[in-house]
Amino acid sequence: MGETVGKAESRRLGERQWRPLLLLAIWTLSISAGQAWAFGQPVAPSQEEREALESLKGSVSGEIVFSSRRDGKWRLFRILPDGGDLARLSSGTANHTRPFFVLGGTKLIYQSDQDGPNQIWMAEPDLTQPRRLSPAGREERFQGLTADGGRMLVARSLRPPAYLLRDLASGRDTPVDFSAHGIKNGRVEAMLSPDGTKIAYQFKDGGEGEPPRAVYVMDLGPDGRAANPRRVANGCFTAWRSDSSAFLTCQFAVFRGVPGTEIWLADDKAAREQLTTNLDWNYFPAWSPDERWMVWAASPLYSHDQSSGKYEIYVKRLRDRNPVRLTFHTAPDVDPTWRAGRSKIKGQPTDFVYEAEDYSHAPATVAADPQASGGKAAFASFGAPKAGGIVYGQYDVLAPGRYVATFRLKFSQPRGKGLAAELDVSVDNGQRILAKLPINGSEIKPGRYQEYQLEFNSDQLLTALECRVSFYPGVADLSVDVITVKPASSLPWYQPAKRMWPGLFD
């Protein structure tokens, strides 16, 4: 892996007097760029919210997975139902959305565009061992799985003719026939009941003579024919109870002339009991494993859009009127799903590994490099037109503690003097710098990768954590390979000497 270069305060002694001003200007630009890349920002819970979370401890169990857009991409996150141990499950360049625990919580189904089109995938609850359930190259949307895992409802688009009932053993698809309801051209958002005998669905935007917008239920035969349509609610979203006799749904409500939605408990004939009363947009309901609680996402009335609204995850007992907020971020947190088990991951994985090409920004480009992890690196040229942050944007959440970030970098033969790059670890979208290291042309060992380490610590939760690389042209080409963050261990016995004489231990 090359050499290790420790934190060296002595590097700074020879810096010129103008350098602090230059660094301040560059980092002002870098912080602005980082804020543009992030989608939303973390927020602190109020004292009342902290007390509500504390009251959940010992009352709820299992884990909740939801999707969020905190870095511009849709990621899957895991959180405990008492608000603890938030962990990001997915990363990279693909979007991951719409998680559903299935088969008693032993598997996680989700949507991903990692192979191109948006498709259905299944993995372990911690997102390991993923496999695609959709045919190669075909866009599909998951619309429910029977409790025995035998049949899955699939939508190639959200139009009635595009619905298929798939036998997972044989792979055979049976078209779903909605003709008994007389719907042809509108939008259908459906969910298959656990016993496979019914579908609950929202229908809207139908043509002239078609049924009105509402939530409906129809009986479904193994031949794909749906029959006996009945209108249940005037909203959207459906989440079946395990006995297939009831489901959670949303109904529209109006407050001072402004529409919102509330969550109701319904059977297959009508909405029976209102479960929320906060007059916001209450969407994405799901059951707890024991079906005495529910989890959902809510956003203020002024922020309705499901891809950009201020949705947060909430939990409550079904008949308790006091919802408890679990997530605290202005990016949308949506699509929660809840299982009884708990993945063998703590608040965050032991190590974070960031491939620099996944977080690359101009003036850097992604370049092939056989010496780099994965065969790619973020590359910035000596002749770049301007300085700038070339790697940033991980925006992770890290528990309080002491850590070391390792940056694997490679420089070309220096052709100039002065500052070549600067590394830092920051939180809160660059608002607070935890550690920083400048690298001068005189310190470069060209042609091979070296490891540069930054140690940092905090007694507070670290939010929107970034490991950033800024590049200064006119000195040398720079390749950034991989960045890792792990708990700091004891320093080697020779570390003090290495700081004073770095060449002695090369």
Give the secondary structure arrangement, pairings included.
Layout: E1 3-5, H1 19-37, H2 47-56, E2 63-68, E3 75-79, E4 87-88, E5 96-102, E6 107-112, E7 119-123, E8 131-132, E9 141-145, E10 151-155, E11 163-167, E12 173-175, E13 187-192, E14 198-204, E15 214-220, E16 226-233, E17 235-240, E18 246-255, E19 258-267, E20 271-274, E21 281-287, E22 293-299, E23 312-317, E24 324-325, E25 333-339, E26 352-355, E27 365-368, E28 376-380, E29 388-391, E30 396-398, E31 401-411, E32 419-427, E33 432-440, E34 450-458, E35 462-471, E36 478-487, H3 495-500
Parallel strand pairs: 1-34
Antiparallel strand pairs: 2-3, 2-25, 3-4, 5-6, 6-7, 7-8, 9-10, 10-11, 11-12, 13-14, 14-15, 15-16, 17-18, 18-19, 19-20, 21-22, 22-23, 23-24, 26-36, 27-28, 28-36, 29-35, 30-35, 31-34, 31-36, 32-33, 32-35
